[in-house]
Amino acid sequence: MRVLVTRDIPEEALKIVAENAEMELWREARPIPREVLIEQVADKVGLLCMLTDRIDDAVLEAGKHLRVVSQMAVGYDNIDVAACTKHGVPVGNTPGVLTETTADTAFALILATARRMHESEQFLRAGEWKMWDPMLLLGQDVHHATIGIVGMGRIGYEVARRAYGFQMRILYTGNRPNEEAERNFEAQRVDLPTLLRESDFVSVHTPLNAQTHHLLGAEHFAQMKRTAILINTARGAVVDQKALYTALKEGVIGGAGLDVFEREPLPMDDPLLTLSNLVLVPHIGSASIKTRTQMAVLAAKNLVAGIQGKPLLHEVPAPIQP
Ligand code: GLV
Ligand code: GLV
Questions:
Q1: How far is CA 297 from CA 14, 32, 104, 166, in A?
Q2: In what order do the strands lie in the sheet with 201-204?
């Protein structure tokens, strides 16, 4: 049984794959080129892929023998799940194991942006620190501020737990109430305009899909406080990035902490890079050694289950047919 793994991943996971199948591995330190993916998938029964691989009808047509697509990520907006379903191929993902690490990343961005850690560090390293200064690099408090969590899923819930520890007031939006978050962290479910109006920090935790594409744009930034900070560790395209640039530049909102972008890698001529009131990191939400290992192992187990015709440990639900 031949399988393709599209990127070098933690050894523990490769071992599981290699013990159960004949593994072809794309070892280069860049995503597998699309034409190579299409060529190599032809004789494979399993595909272990990354969020940088577009898995669509063309890949599934080429991979006629595929029994499973196993993605090493929780988000799967790069995968045409309807096309996989049409070809009878289940899709696996890795929820759960990265929840708390990603919540830590969101909180790191909240603290770093509010307290201007990036500007402070640049200031010190540039040799500009001449004396203690009562007015130097003043930022905003995180403790006792109001946080608005857009999407109270697993990751949103863990962000709420951290916010509660900082004695923050917690607002959230979501398709349904999250009673645990309300009971444990005094979170209040509100509509989006209320959340935008009242929050000092707005943190996005929704998957990217047709309903959430550009969920936040110019008209939403206009409703936010002029001091508000936007945090995005979900997917870049949940936020209209051009509109965000304008809002930050014109002082419509106060700042942003971004781990994800509409185009990744962020092009070095992107106008966001000309602004100082934001912290930008390269999609490292789940990037701890332990979590990336757990994600890879889970993706390997989904792959093995799929090629053996067993139920996946975590299967993405098939889209509801209209
Ligand atoms: C990372 O962005 C993931 O979806 O796991
Ligand atoms: C992902 O783990 C989520 O549901 O927030």
A1: 8, 20, 21, 33
A2: 188-189, 169-173, 146-150, 201-204, 229-232, 255-258, 278-280
Ligand 1 atom at shortest distance from the alpha carbon of 76: 4
Calculate mean pLDDT across residues 189-213. 98
How far is Cα 289 from Cα 44, in angstroms, rounded to an integer?
A: 29
Asked whether the predicted pLDDT for residue 24 surpasses 80, the reply is yes
Write out pLDDT tens, residues 243-252.
999 999 999 9
Ligand 2 binding pocket (C-beta < 6 A) is 74, 95, 99, 153-156, 205
Pocket test for ligand 1, best of 52, 101, 102, 258 (most atoms within 8 A of CB): 102
As given in the structure block, the two tokens for residue 180 are: 């645990």
Q: Is the pLDDT of residue 322 over 80?
A: no
Residues 6+ apart with CB under 8 A from 176: none
Give the mean model confidence (pLDDT) for residues 156-174: 98
CA distance between the termini of the chain: 35
* pLDDT score for 272: 98
* Amino acid in the structure at residue 8: D
Report whether 187 contacts 203 (CB < 8 A).
no
Please, what is the Cα angle at 139 between 138 and 143, to 5 degrees? 130
Element (H, E) at 169: strand 169-173
Tell me the average pLDDT of the chain.
97
